[in-house]
Amino acid sequence: MVSRLLCLLALTGICLASPLGDLEKELKKEGVDLVKLHEELKHESEELEEEFSSKDTQNQLAKLRAAYHTCSNDTIQEKTELEVNGDLTKDLFEGDIVLTKEQWARALDRDPNVTLQRRQALTDAIKMWTPMGAPIIPYSYVDGFPEDKKPVIIASLKFWEGRTCVKFREATETDKNVVVFNHISPGCSSSVGMVGGKQTVNLGSGCFSVTVVAHEVSHAFGTLHVQSRSDRDNYIIVDTANIQQGKEHNFMKDPPYYGKIDNYGIPYEFGSMQHYHEKAFAIDTTKPTIYAKPAFTQYQGSMEAPRASFYDTLLINKLYKCTDKCQNKITCQNNGVQDGADCNKCFCPKGWAGTNCDMRPDSAIMIKLISNQNITVTVEAGTDEMKEILYIIEAPVGKKIQAVVTSIYRFMYSMCRTVGVEIVPSKDTRVNGFRFCGKPDATPIVSDSNQMLIWLYNEKANPLSADIQLTLV
Ligand SMILES: [Zn+2]
């Protein structure tokens, strides 16, 4: 806002020295040469363009662009932290991460002998909170933090406490390392990992939802974004022609040893809470900057998530070795794992519940499919908190289920960040399914067993319904 005001003043002929934003002030204080940093980022942007410039990649992109199903113009444009941050991103890493001087040095340390290759894993410069296995993060608020915004913060912290071994407590005078929630900010951002001393999670207007706060807090735990993983080229192609000029560096790729051991065994997940949405930093906001590769095109509209997925949660539990301390190892059914928050039970993937993940959730709606059927699924308005509902469809053994989403109403959104219908066709429900929130793509989805999940989630002020055609195949 300040910079816009200055632009306006400049246009009217009133000259003002451009004051540094708080973030730039902090970086300068740390001894970061901002001119050099911006030059380095420009160079990274040029390298990214080069990375995707090969004839083969451009041919693949041309096909993906031609096949892309553009949403109609009447969709409601949603904003994520990337859009909220706007021009701020010139001093941030991957759009919403505040790096320290040491972290920037690692992130930008190119290998002079290998084109497009950085030498050091940024993750080696990310410190974890302590003690490992049961970390406790002291937190506080900046002076004047609005009382009415605190429940969103608390809900986000409780969300993580309920599924990991990370615990939070209000900071005392003697705490050295503290996460401070700051509302006086032009955007949403966080440091990555434990920086040492006071570190802020910046939440300006547009950042106050559990979706955004939990995402930023995940960065404070030590996570980066999924689309920067070293193996991302197996899954996505970045369309640099549609990225706003100077923002290309946000799509940089981590060196191959990111995550130390094979990304902690976590598969690449389009529907992760830490994945960019498909139109991140787009010039033409009706077209993607990230295309799913041909083998994964059904995930095109399903990048990022309203809440941490099973694997997003598992990553935090692995980063902090949450279950290593559990004396009794527990056997979990249906791909569940020992719960990072409670050694005596399993953490279950979607559609499963109970101590050992062998029961269906009480709240789920069960539908036995004995013949072809058209159903209407509904979730109520989620004004103060996200409302969700899970439908579990079961066909006779030996049969599979084909689903076609024929309509979604009442409103259509540009991305499925806060409202949507997700169809999970795999028996392994750790994996995210395919999401719908705008004009439905009529491509049939077929289950790989006699089970299918339909998950509806809604943070909006209106209920959401969808018509789905179910066929036994
Ligand atoms: Zn982020």
TrEMBL record:
<keyword id="KW-0645">Protease</keyword>
<keyword id="KW-0479">Metal-binding</keyword>
<dbReference type="InterPro" id="IPR001506">
    <property type="entry name" value="Peptidase_M12A"/>
</dbReference>
<feature type="coiled-coil region">
    <location>
        <begin position="20"/>
        <end position="58"/>
    </location>
</feature>
<protein>
    <recommendedName>
        <fullName>Zinc metalloproteinase</fullName>
    </recommendedName>
</protein>
<dbReference type="GO" id="GO:0004222">
    <property type="term" value="F:metalloendopeptidase activity"/>
</dbReference>
<keyword id="KW-0325">Glycoprotein</keyword>
<keyword id="KW-0862">Zinc</keyword>
<feature type="domain" description="Peptidase M12A">
    <location>
        <begin position="120"/>
        <end position="323"/>
    </location>
</feature>
<dbReference type="GO" id="GO:0006508">
    <property type="term" value="P:proteolysis"/>
</dbReference>
<dbReference type="GO" id="GO:0008270">
    <property type="term" value="F:zinc ion binding"/>
</dbReference>
<dbReference type="GO" id="GO:0005615">
    <property type="term" value="C:extracellular space"/>
</dbReference>
<keyword id="KW-1015">Disulfide bond</keyword>
<keyword id="KW-0245">EGF-like domain</keyword>
<keyword id="KW-0732">Signal</keyword>
<keyword id="KW-0175">Coiled coil</keyword>
<feature type="signal peptide">
    <location>
        <begin position="1"/>
        <end position="17"/>
    </location>
</feature>
<feature type="binding site">
    <location>
        <position position="225"/>
    </location>
    <ligand>
        <name>Zn(2+)</name>
    </ligand>
</feature>
<keyword id="KW-0964">Secreted</keyword>
<dbReference type="InterPro" id="IPR017050">
    <property type="entry name" value="Metallopeptidase_nem"/>
</dbReference>
<keyword id="KW-0482">Metalloprotease</keyword>
<dbReference type="InterPro" id="IPR006026">
    <property type="entry name" value="Peptidase_Metallo"/>
</dbReference>
<dbReference type="InterPro" id="IPR024079">
    <property type="entry name" value="MetalloPept_cat_dom_sf"/>
</dbReference>
<dbReference type="Pfam" id="PF01400">
    <property type="entry name" value="Astacin"/>
</dbReference>
<dbReference type="GO" id="GO:0018996">
    <property type="term" value="P:molting cycle, collagen and cuticulin-based cuticle"/>
</dbReference>
<keyword id="KW-0378">Hydrolase</keyword>
<feature type="binding site">
    <location>
        <position position="219"/>
    </location>
    <ligand>
        <name>Zn(2+)</name>
    </ligand>
</feature>
<dbReference type="InterPro" id="IPR000742">
    <property type="entry name" value="EGF"/>
</dbReference>
<feature type="active site">
    <location>
        <position position="216"/>
    </location>
</feature>
<dbReference type="InterPro" id="IPR035914">
    <property type="entry name" value="Sperma_CUB_dom_sf"/>
</dbReference>
<dbReference type="InterPro" id="IPR034035">
    <property type="entry name" value="Astacin-like_dom"/>
</dbReference>
<feature type="binding site">
    <location>
        <position position="215"/>
    </location>
    <ligand>
        <name>Zn(2+)</name>
    </ligand>
</feature>
